[in-house]
Amino acid sequence: MHAMTPVKLLSRTAACLLVLSTQSQSQTQSPSQAGSEAPAIPTQEQLANDNNLFLAMARKALKWEEPDEPVRIVGPVYFVGTKGLGCFLFATSEGLVLMNTGMPSSGPMIADSIRKLGFRPEDIKLMINGHAHVDHAGAFAYFKEQFGAPLAVMREDVAAMESGDKNDFKYADDFVYPAAKVDRILRDGDVIRMGDVRLTAYLTPGHTRGATTWIADIVVDGKPYLVAFPDGAGFNPGYRVARNPSYPGITDDYRRTHHQLEMLKPDIWLAQHNEYYDLAGKRKRAETEGVNAWIDPEGYRQFIAGKKRAFEDEVDLEMGVEKVAAEKGTK
After folding, report:
1. What's the confidence (pLDDT) of residue 96?
2. pTM for the model
3. pLDDT on residue 324
């Protein structure tokens, strides 16, 4: 088992942004700036209260819009995303399935990655996604317009997808993107079969009402693999998950999602944000270890446990019990 990086262990987007922005400022500081006061780093409160600041920092610090090289992960599963965002291709005998599309600017990058792998974007038979936020759904409209690819979305996220995420419960209209017409409405437990790939969609709400965890059942050289794409478990700065909740029922949604994700036992897990599953590290190890570099059931367990722990800590904070909890821990 390989040690997890500090960034991967961070369960909160705000903490990750603060770390990366600090690194970026220290690396880019010129000699003439040395000794002068460094630019102020936004606090979590500022990130929570300023949607545009949060998005601007995330897209830059986390490299959401920087192209990356595609790579085969296992059998028919390929990474085709950007340096920061996870987009995946399933190459089946009946055509291609594309999962997620990153930011609106990512469309041409993803199409180029698909071509680099020897496939054609014109052969995409279906598009699916994890949740309807701009950093994962921003370029579905591009693929529909350019290649006529149909889109399947969980019922609870259809309205967000078809409006470009207007009236979002946290971001209002700050993170809107080109709207995409949904061609197939999914429900919890729906199965998509294409060729020798079986994809199951599970409703795991919290991060959005229709956040969807996908499970891919594949067989490679006679060996079965369960590949998980967990979604819905995390919350961003400014989400209210207990007191005056961001949407009615969000607390119970998160707890059901965490329980459901805990029950999954994948061999390989991938995610919408590449730092979660250590894309760079596993890609490097795969050069010598092959598919074994991607097998990481313990990493998945730790990831979900971290999301659950962060959520319960936030509930305590919002309910004003964090001090009591701390005092109990000292006795």
Report:
1. 98
2. 0.88
3. 52
In angstroms, the CA 235 to CA 223 distance is 36
CA quadruple 164, 167, 170, 176: dihedral, nearest 10:
30
For residue 188, what are its two tokens?
């919890």
Nearest-10 Cα torsion for 159, 162, 168, 169: 10
Burial of 255 (0-12, 13-18, 19+ CB in 10 A): middle
The count of other CB atoms within 10 Å of the CB of residue 183 is: 13
Q: Which range (9-18, 101-110, 136-145, 218-227) has the least confidence?
A: 9-18
Closest Cα to residue 252, out of 204, 213, 214, 211?
204
Domain residue ranges in the chain: 44-329
**Among candidate residues 64, 54, 273, 271, the one with its CA nearest the CA of residue 171:** 54
Strands 124-128 and 95-99: parallel
Q: Give the Cα separation of 99 and 192 in Å (integer).
A: 13
CATH topology of domain 44-329: Metallo-beta-lactamase; Chain A (3.60.15)
Q: How confident is the model at residue 16 (pLDDT cuts 50, 70, 90)?
A: low
> CA 54 to CA 85: how far, in whole Å?
16
For 201-250, what is each residue's pLDDT tens digit? 999 999 999 999 999 999 999 999 999 999 999 999 999 999 999 999 99
